[in-house]
Design goal:
The chain has helices spanning about 5-20, 25-30, 35-45, 50-60, 65-70, 180-185; strands spanning about 85, 90-95, 100-110, 125-130, 135-140, 140-145, 150-155, 160-165, 170-175. It is α+β, with helices and mostly antiparallel strands. It folds into 2 domains: about 5-70, lambda repressor-like DNA-binding domains (434 Repressor (Amino-terminal Domain), Orthogonal Bundle), CATH 1.10.260; about 85-185, Jelly Rolls (Sandwich), CATH 2.60.120.10. The strands form 2 sheets. It has a 6-stranded antiparallel β-sheet. The two termini are about 40 Å apart. This is XRE family transcriptional regulator. It holds the Pfam family HTH_31. GO terms for molecular function: DNA binding; DNA-binding transcription factor activity.
Length: about 190
């Protein structure tokens, strides 16, 4: 698809996103700061959008610009995973998006049962899914054993600690951190 074809298809994409959110033209105009008539002309393909229209629409729709206009993908889409090790854990980023939610595969080495909990607190929420093995999730004084295929979500202002539940095999989880959680967990890796 060449640039003209991409630009010609933008209007119908914009209409589709608006309709998918259940917004009428007036509601979208109110949220985006773009006039109703301009939005209508954009959606009908009578004018080609510029950044001054696309940026506010992307914010309202919660989409990156390239997805909003169906820009052709360029370059290698693979994420080049680079493991980082800290405190006996291995963090592997599963995406390259800066800011917002970040997903990581986290590997917990087998540990001694006598290791005392090291509690963390920070603003935000954390979500985790156990890929393999089992982990102990301790929230304040409540201990939960999570096994392969189980997930948990919690407010990270609650004192929390996660550790491998076994001393004979590693445990692997997928963890999703918000911006605050990423800072707490990974700044000095």
């Amino acid at each position: 698809m060449d640039d003209d074809e991409v630009l010609d298809a933008v209007g119908s994409r914009l209409r589709g996103f608006r309709q998918a959110l259940g917004l009428n033209l007036a509601e979208l105009a109110n949220r985006s700061g773009i006039s109703i008539s301009t939005i209508s002309r954009l959606e009908r393909g009578l004018v080609r959008p510029g950044l001054e229209q696309l940026l506010p629409l992307a914010r309202v729709y919660g989409l990156p610009l390239d997805e909003l206009v169906a820009a052709p993908r360029v370059g290698d889409p693979r994420v080049h995973l680079k493991a980082v090790r800290k405190h006996g854990l291995t963090f592997i980023p599963l995406g390259v998006r800066a800011g917002g939610l970040q997903a990581f595969k986290v590997i917990y080495k087998p540990i001694s049962k006598s290791r005392p909990p090291h509690y963390n607190t920070h603003p935000g929420r954390e979500w985790l899914y156990v890929l393999d093995g089992s982990v102990n999730l301790v929230l304040a004084d409540q201990r939960t054993l999570l096994k392969t295929g189980e997930a948990a979500e919690f407010d990270t202002m609650t004192p929390h600690w996660i550790a491998n539940a076994r001393d004979d095999q590693p445990a692997e989880i997928i963890a999703i951190y918000g911006h605050q959680g990423e800072r707490i967990h990974l700044t000095d890796l």
